[in-house]
Amino acid sequence: MDGYWARAHRRRISRQNLLRGSVAAAGGLGALALVGCGDDDSGGKTATPASTGSPAASATTGTAGSPTSGTSQASGAPFKPANGKRGGVLTYLTTSEPPNLDPHLVITVQMLQTTQMYARLMHFDAKVDKLVPELALSYETPDSTTIRYKLRSGVKFHGGEVLTSEDVKYSLERIGQIGQAKPDPQFAQAFMMSDVNSIEAPDANTVVIKLKQPSAPTLSYLSAPFNGIVNKKFTEANDLKTKANGTGPFKLKSWQRSNRISFERHADYFWASDGLPFLDGWQAIISPDAGTNNAAFVSGQTLGAFPNTFSGKAKQLASFKKDIPDLQSVGKDVTYWSYFDMNKRKPGWSDPKVRKAVQLTINRQTAAERVLDGEYSQQGPIAAGFPFYPLSQDEINQMPGFRKDKTQDIADAKKLMEAAGFSSSNPLKATGITTPLHPFYEPFLLAIKEDLKQIGIEIEVKEFPDFGSFLQARVQLNFDVYAYSQGGPDDVDQYLTEVFHSKSASNFGGFNDAKTDDLLAKQRAALVRDERKKIVDELQRYLMTEAHPHGFLPTQHGYAWWRKPYQVDSALTSPSYSGFFGQFTWLDPVPGNMKNFDSF
Length: 600
What we know:
Layout: H1 4-9, H2 15-18, E1 71-73, E2 89-94, H3 111-114, E3 122-125, E4 130-133, E5 136-143, E6 146-151, H4 165-176, E7 196-203, E8 206-211, H5 218-222, H6 232-237, E9 250-256, E10 260-265, E11 281-286, H7 290-299, H8 314-323, E12 328-333, E13 336-342, H9 352-361, H10 364-372, E14 376-377, H11 393-397, H12 407-419, E15 428-434, H13 441-453, E16 457-463, H14 467-475, E17 481-487, H15 493-500, H16 514-525, H17 529-547, E18 550-553, E19 555-562
Parallel strand pairs: 2-11, 15-16, 15-17
Antiparallel strand pairs: 1-5, 3-4, 5-6, 6-8, 7-8, 9-10, 10-11, 12-19, 13-17, 13-18, 14-19
């Protein structure tokens, strides 16, 4: 039986579109790898539950996350690679560590660690283009505003507690700050639950979610990797920033700040009887130096990292291929996006004339040559690698500010600045915050600083040595401007509502525009995919040519590479953060330097 949401978004991702999604990277510094997802043997919208309750299932959705009305249940055999071998400790080098371990607070690439500890209700499987059950054995959508999950029984947290519907209810209410008189702004993903009216737990294994209105993105959001399920009693008694207790495939072994973070196999993982996870454990060595990381990859000390969106470069790939003849690689547009944000609460930046002048002045071609080695795509609010919704490159390249010839743009920008009361003799002065622990933030900010000098904007760069301090300054609104990159969403709404809605906790720049809020609400409620795209297109054009909440920056063409014996199917890539599945990682054979935690 076809349902409200499935009719709206059902589509099959072609191999071409699939390969435009996001995959794996370690800060673009080498030592990369991909992971695979489960197969679906049912071939239909519903299926008979398997006794093992395996990863693959028949919950039919589109990428936007709109489910089939009726019941979908877990089905098929668990994912088992042809040459998978149990054992081994995967070690990789990373430029930064998570600011903390709370799965509901860590929303940057450092979530790679937390997602391995905390399972969620479902996850998006790019190979079968569906949301498939994880902690939920099945779900049903009897109408357009009700989602009912049936949880699998006997799931154990790392501490031994048994998962119940109360844990799910507590987790989702915590994420969305539902029922809180004063929502905690730390929970930046609260916008994902904005269409949720209530969450009920009628029995230990049932969760019923009532929506305020039909909502295109909510089912995907409920299963987003940011939204792992925590144990209610443990969380109320402990600080999840330093202690962890999830139901995921790996549990925390140790964390030595600025050194390494280690995870070991969860013996009571709900898919343990199917051999998952394959690894005995994995660990991330904190190594900010790109040269060190690249040397370790070339020498074979490291094989890969858990997935992020692509951020490797063609020049680095070519260099590696000289030293590693059997190097495996794949390239594509990425699904994260880069932007220059301005604190609209501050004098000058609150003026749309100033923000338009910034949008006109940024020389994207020069910045791309300097920061991205000239390999890039233009983009607005939606990254070029995301399927279906981005504006075309031809359209963007004809917009003011995005054109190659900057002559008219600069002239118009200077007039706007003069109208706003600023000029080279009376500049608008600002502090731009950044951190070197990401390959794009600082170089983009420095390139923009040079561009804006010519229209009377002077930026003093304040560099934070660690990523956590940078994030804290942003949350505390202690900035004038900054450059940033983010993305990898499960639904197009995450590009939009998260950063542009006037009430979003992630709208750090304080953008407040009634027309934008109206269009955001309309696209969320649009259950026909083509109709939703029309609204999204209107919103993109409005933000890029009239409202100017950000200076939209180009995104690079991404490359990932990995070396044998790490087993990778390069076709198994995901256009979202839902590709983070370390339990499907294996080594064959296990290298000598990865036998245990102490062998690196």
